[in-house]
């Protein structure tokens, strides 16, 4: 037996105005799950503890709770000493029991055709990845769009896609899904990352439904404009000032006399190229100072992310071919991105590119950086969705940031700029941005650091704190260091 | 509509922890057909019954999440190919069931299972298909043709999802997280049920016909595959109401349950693992099934494989966690990933990659073959009461074939729903004394003194020790005595919300006693029921015995003549 001390959320609607966290110490067998800890509390300490469970083997979706803030199935998650067990972020009925019915009722059901059309194997194979949903609603509990707008949610969208793929269904699921908020999803991937069944709802349902919607002419006008611009110029934004690519040569040598630590291509992306070129230039300085030899082919174009996220796929393959050929022809083994969205797209949506893709945070931590001066600044870090969840990069930017400023954490929640929401659903984007601004305020930080042009651009509109890129802050640290060494 | 009224009402009730009360809306709750249970059989019954009148479906959990159907992994048996036949499926089922099955029920099962499969397909079920677009089938134990249809290893979940989607489109009122604690009667006739909602408030539901579809009850054993709802409620509720049950001694121990982590022991490791080519080995590395059934090896019937594994473990050839090895590492990774995704995911969570390491498994209580005696129309021995699914007896005899339970839920769910739907509409009267009786039962719990969890624990350990895979009269008698002495009427409900838990544990105790009594009634080893204290010359086919039966009125064992 092992002894575990845990904290459990308790709330009785009859007597409490708000919940409280109560400590318990229980004995369970080695390997026990969170559910067994709850059983132990219920059976031997307090029988009034309410929690929902049924199958005990991860197949019914009854027992989802948050452990240390993360939604999990209590029956599958290993119990840990010190863990905090709370209900999902849904309406709490009592203790760990939340109201599931409203969201379960929102999930559409098949409307059979009069005559059976037996689905073919390829149709079955397409539906199957969407079918293992156990409706635990972990996804719903983390969806930022549902908090601020009328969105039926990831579980319901998954089902609409599943029905759209089924020849036995008689309804127009595409039009339904648009009405149900298809274009409100920010592609933040939070739903997928908490899904116990690993269902890739943004990529396999939302974006696919948006592609179907595109074929029916239901793409939002603002998204159509972006697609038209990409088609015409190869870029998703217009030129308003000299671009990054116009300001740099094709080859940037590292400073100093030592051999370069690495050579890599740089994929700048539309936003850093045309809206935030100064940030990209800062990044080049940091890379050169740290021994990176950079090749910047000028004919690179938009990665296609704005088109994929909004379901406009006509010219996507042409963009991909162009970018791959551009870097392949330089014989580069590694291509670096600094835009989280481009990086995620190149890594996840380009099938087997002939080079490795690395985010700048990965590059700088892999090859190591010269220590910058530590600035007397408190900073908070905003995790870009496409970096944290799209590329699994969490620690690297923090490792860099801590070398130059003091870091205070805040919850990793979407800022509202992704998935075409900033252009297509500006009110929703503003509502999410406002929430981000409030979180930033709570941290008491002097500045906000991020590593994505969309996030940086969007958050800047919703906080009075300066919003800076990781590379720009590092460069400030180097400048400070140089200033001090001149004085000395 | 009625459902939303119920919800509105919930908000008006002031919660008082030390009492339970009658819900004000309960007086008006009436329907043509009341379905108790929301697994595969209950939902199928509700779908069918809804064609004939108002239906209320009561679920102890949330519909689609409760019961054992969503946990069923391996498959659904149906004769779909020309090379197969219903006659062979019938013979396989009878032989697998040690010829204790009711032949008429088996005939219905095998002949209607394909049609019920068609219903599921029509309603949107996503079963695996072959390259030529036919429903794919895999071989399961004890069957001469690969007739087990499947959706990976989440077949029951696929069915449940399909059924609930179908139900969503129909005018059925659903009471979720509501526990039926007993049936209500008028004379001999069942006229509805008495239930508790999730606050512990009482509801009386009157119905022309009532269908019990409460599933099984192997939670009465320490090691079980069943979900939390497999507590034998239907057997106990039916028995208390006066219905007759048959073959309650017939408990299937699934050969392969997980042994680690300890608190999750018993978790089902699907037969599909062996069906896909998994092999069993003891710690000496021997493929021991060749000693027990050299012909069928790992795909022998479940009773045989379970006894083989238990014997290996008893003889000291088991692992330190108390299991034997079940190995699929010789299979292609892609096959494991595509055909056994749930197994792969579950074991990975518990630290074992089944693509590279063997699983450890041991027998686990899985299915109760016995249950309420039913006619082919799903009628029990009580007028007004129907039963379908695991709570009913007779279909599987002394041992169930893998894949026949999911088929049973659909075939007999539909039949019970239809029969109940077609039954006459009646004036609904409930003798108020029954309700007073229930209120007294509940107030005893509020004033009780024993922690229900302690009683459940003692019960489960005693049943596993004394009424498990290998049985004898002495152990059965002492287990029965122990069960009967458990303080099931002195359970303590610390709040009204805990009342249903007390009722459930009473049901577990009663179900366990029915298993022990029935096991003592059968003086032979047959199928899953092994009496180590009795030797007999006959085999299953020549046995002089048929069903055991047990009710308030009588108990015994039927004899049959071999002419």
Overall description:
- The complex is a heterodimer of chains A (488) and B (563).
- In chain A, 42% of the residues lie in helices and 14% in strands.
- Chain A is of the alpha/beta class and 488 residues long.
- Chain A folds into 4 domains: 2-98, Beta-grasp domain (Ubiquitin-like (UB roll), Roll); 103-215, Fumarate Reductase Iron-sulfur Protein, Chain B, domain 2; 234-366, Rossmann fold, CATH 3.40.50.1860; 371-487, Rossmann fold (3-Layer(aba) Sandwich).
- In chain A, α22 (453-460) links the parallel β15 (447-450) and β16.
- In chain B, the strands form 5 sheets. In chain B, strands 1, 2, 6, 7, 8, 9 and 16 form a 7-stranded mixed sheet that branches. A 4-stranded antiparallel sheet of chain B has the order 15-10-19-20, with helices on one face.
- In chain B, a hairpin with a 4-residue loop joins β19 (545-550) and β20 (555-559).
- Chain B starts with a helix and ends with a strand.
- The chains are: A alpha/beta (488), B alpha/beta (563).
Strand content of chain B: 15-25%
- Compute the average pLDDT of chain A: 96
Q: Structural class per helix/strand content of chain B? A: alpha/beta
When the domains of chain A are counted, the total is 4
Head-to-tail CA distance between termini of chain B: 58 Å
* Sheet having the most strands of chain A: 5 strands, mixed
- Fraction of helical residues of chain B: 25-40%
3D shape of chain B: globular
Number of strands of chain A: 16
Largest contact between chains: A-B, 56 and 63 residues
Calculate the mean pLDDT score of chain B and round it: 93
Number of domains of chain B: 4
Question: How far apart are the termini of chain A?
Answer: 62 Å
CATH top level of the largest domain in chain A is Alpha Beta
> Helicity range of the residues of chain A?
40-55%
Shape descriptor of chain A reads: globular
Major sheet details of chain B:
7 strands, mixed
CATH class group of the largest domain in chain B: Alpha Beta
Q: Give the C-alpha Rg of chain B.
A: 23 Å
CATH topology of the largest domain in chain A: Rossmann fold
């Amino acid at each position: 037996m092992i002894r575990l001390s845990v904290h459990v959320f308790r709330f009785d609607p009859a007597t409490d105005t708000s919940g409280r966290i109560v400590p318990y110490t229980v004995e369970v067998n080695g390997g026990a799950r969170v559910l067994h800890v709850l059983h132990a509390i219920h059976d031997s300490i307090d029988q009034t503890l309410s929690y929902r469970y049924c199958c005990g083997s991860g197949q019914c979706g009854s027992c989802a709770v948050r452990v240390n803030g993360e939604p999990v199935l209590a029956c599958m998650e290993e119990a840990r000493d010190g863990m905090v067990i709370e209900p999902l972020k849904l309406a709490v009925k009592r203790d760990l029991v939340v109201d599931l019915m409203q969201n379960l009722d929102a999930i559409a059901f098949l409307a059979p055709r009069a005559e059976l059309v037996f689905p073919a194997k390829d149709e079955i194979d397409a539906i199957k990845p969407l079918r293992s949903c156990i409706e635990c609603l972990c996804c719903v509990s983390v969806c930022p769009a549902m908090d601020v707008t009328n969105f039926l949610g990831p579980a319901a969208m998954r089902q609409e896609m599943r029905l759209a793929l089924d020849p036995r269904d008689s309804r127009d699921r595409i039009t339904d899904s648009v009405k149900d908020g298809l274009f409100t999803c920010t592609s933040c991937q939070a739903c997928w990352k908490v899904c116990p069944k690993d269902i890739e709802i943004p990529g396999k349902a939302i974006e696919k439904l948006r592609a179907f919607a595109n074929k029916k002419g239901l793409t939002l006008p603002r998204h159509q404009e972006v697609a038209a611009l990409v088609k015409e110029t190869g870029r998703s934004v217009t030129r308003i000032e000299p671009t990054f690519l116009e300001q740099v040569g094709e080859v940037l040598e590292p400073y100093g006399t030592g051999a370069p630590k690495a050579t890599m291509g740089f994929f700048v992306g539309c936003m850093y190229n045309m809206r935030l070129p100064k940030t990209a230039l800062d990044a080049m300085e940091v890379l050169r100072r740290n021994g990176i030899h950079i090749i910047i082919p000028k004919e690179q174009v938009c990665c296609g992310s704005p088109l994929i996220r909004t379901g406009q796929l006509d010219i996507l393959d042409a963009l991909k071919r162009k970018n791959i050929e551009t870097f392949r022809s330089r014989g580069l083994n590694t291509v670096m991105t600094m835009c989280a969205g481009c990086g995620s797209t190149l890594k996840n949506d380009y099938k087997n590119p002939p080079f490795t893709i690395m985010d700048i945070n990965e590059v700088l931590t892999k090859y190591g950086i010269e220590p910058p001066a530590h600035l007397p600044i408190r900073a908070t870090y905003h995790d870009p969705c496409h970096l944290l969840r799209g590329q699994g990069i969490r620690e690297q930017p923090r490792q860099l940031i801590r070398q130059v400023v003091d870091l205070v954490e805040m919850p990793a929640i979407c800022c509202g700029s992704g998935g075409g929401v900033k252009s297509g659903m500006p009110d929703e984007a503003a509502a999410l941005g406002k929430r981000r601004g409030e979180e930033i305020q709570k941290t008491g930080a002097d500045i906000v650091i991020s590593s994505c042009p969309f996030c940086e651009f969007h958050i800047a509109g919703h906080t009075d704190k300066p919003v800076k890129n990781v590379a720009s802050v590092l460069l400030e640290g180097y400048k400070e260091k140089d200033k001090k060494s001149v004085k000395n | 509509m009625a459902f939303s009224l119920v919800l509105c009402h919930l908000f008006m009730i002031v919660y008082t922890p030390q009492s339970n009360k009658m819900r004000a809306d309960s007086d008006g709750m009436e329907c043509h057909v009341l379905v108790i249970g929301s697994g595969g059989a209950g939902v199928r019954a509700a779908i069918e019954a809804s064609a004939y009148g108002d239906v209320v479906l009561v679920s102890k959990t949330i519909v689609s999440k409760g019961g054992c159907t969503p946990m069923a992994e391996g498959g659904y048996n149906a004769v779909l190919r020309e090379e197969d036949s219903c006659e062979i499926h019938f013979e396989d089922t009878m032989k697998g069931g040690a010829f204790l099955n009711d032949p008429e029920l088996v005939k219905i099962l095998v002949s209607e299972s394909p049609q019920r499969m068609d219903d599921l397909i029509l309603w949107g079920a996503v079963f695996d298909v072959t390259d030529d677009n036919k429903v794919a089938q895999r071989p399961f134990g004890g069957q001469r043709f690969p007739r087990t249809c499947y959706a990976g290893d989440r077949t029951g979940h696929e069915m449940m999802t399909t059924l609930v989607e179908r139900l969503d489109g129909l005018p059925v009122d659903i009471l979720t997280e509501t526990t039926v604690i007993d049936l209500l009667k008028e004379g001999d006739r069942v006229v509805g049920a008495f239930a508790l909602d999730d606050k512990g408030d009482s509801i009386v539901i009157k119905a022309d016909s009532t269908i019990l579809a409460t599933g099984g009850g192997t939670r009465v054993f320490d090691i079980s595959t069943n979900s939390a709802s497999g507590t034998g409620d239907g057997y106990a509720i039916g028995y208390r109401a006066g219905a007759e049950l048959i073959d309650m001694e017939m408990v299937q121990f699934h050969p392969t349950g997980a042994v680690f982590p300890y608190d999750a022991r018993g978790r089902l490791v699907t037969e599909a693992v062996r069906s896909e080519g998994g092999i069993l080995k003891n710690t000496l590395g021997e493929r021991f099934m060749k000693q027990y059934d050299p012909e069928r090896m790992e795909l022998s019937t479940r009773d045989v494989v379970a006894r083989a594994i238990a014997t290996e473990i008893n003889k000291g050839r088991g692992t330190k966690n108390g299991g034997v090895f079940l190995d699929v590492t010789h299979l292609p990774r892609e096959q494991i990933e595509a055909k056994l995704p749930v197994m792969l995911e579950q074991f990975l969570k518990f630290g074992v990659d089944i693509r590279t390491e063997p699983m450890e498994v041991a027998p686990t209580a899985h299915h109760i073959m016995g249950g309420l005696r039913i006619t082919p129309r799903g009628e029990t021995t009580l007028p007004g009461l129907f039963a379908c699914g695991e709570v009913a007896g007779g279909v599987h005899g002394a041992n169930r074939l893998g894949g026949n339970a999911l088929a049973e839920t659909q075939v007999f769910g539909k039949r019970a729903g239809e029969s109940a739907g077609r039954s006459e509409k009646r004036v609904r009267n409930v003798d108020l004394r029954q309700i007073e009786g229930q209120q007294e039962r509940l107030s005893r719990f509020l004033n009780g003194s024993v922690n229900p969890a302690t009683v459940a624990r003692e019960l489960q350990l005693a049943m596993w020790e004394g009424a498990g895979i290998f049985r004898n009269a002495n152990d059965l008698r002492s287990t029965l005595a122990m069960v009967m002495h458990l303080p099931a009427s002195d359970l303590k409900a610390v709040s009204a919300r805990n009342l249903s838990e007390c009722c459930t544990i009473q049901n577990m105790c009663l179900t366990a006693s029915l298993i022990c009594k029935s096991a003592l009634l059968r003086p032979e080893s047959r199928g899953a029921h092994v009496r180590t204290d009795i030797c007999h010359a006959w085999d299953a086919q020549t046995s002089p015995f048929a069903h055991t039966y047990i009710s308030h009125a009588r108990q015994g064992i039927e004899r049959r003549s071999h002419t």
